[in-house]
Amino acid sequence: MSLVTLLPFIVLIGAMFLMTRSAKKKQQQAVDMRNQMQPGSGVRTIGGMYATVKEVNEDTVLLDAGPGVDLLFAKNSIGAVLSDDEYNRIVHGIEHDLKSDADLVPDDASALTDSDKPADASSDDKPVDLGKRDADDEPSDAAPAGAKTEDEPKKTDGDSDAK
Length: 163
Prior knowledge:
Elements: H1 3-35, E1 42-45, E2 50-56, E3 60-66, E4 69-74, E5 78-82, H2 84-92
Antiparallel strand pairs: 1-2, 1-5, 2-3, 3-4
């Protein structure tokens, strides 16, 4: 056999080797992550539940999911071990922010506007009428764009005879 006929098989075997190697690497990282669990660590299960580790055994983990709620999970059902800051941010909504309070945006926009400036001279103080006009109020010589003519059928409230 020539090298040209063996080349596809060699490439296929090489690709399979690389894929299994990366999968084993990810598996090992997951095992290491689960071995780092200690009581008090915040975790997320593969089902998406957040809890605190109470007790770590050989194959199981006892999780505290809330006041008086202890759950026993298989150790490999833990999807992620979270840092304390991340766990508190997700579960309790506590933001651990090191920025000063001066950088915060106020809740209302009144602090962002400068009320000392004079009002713009081009603005009118008369209110804008956004209501619909009756047909009698509109001028008859110019129909507004998009106005329906008498040839078009009128809309009904769904009481048509067509089924």
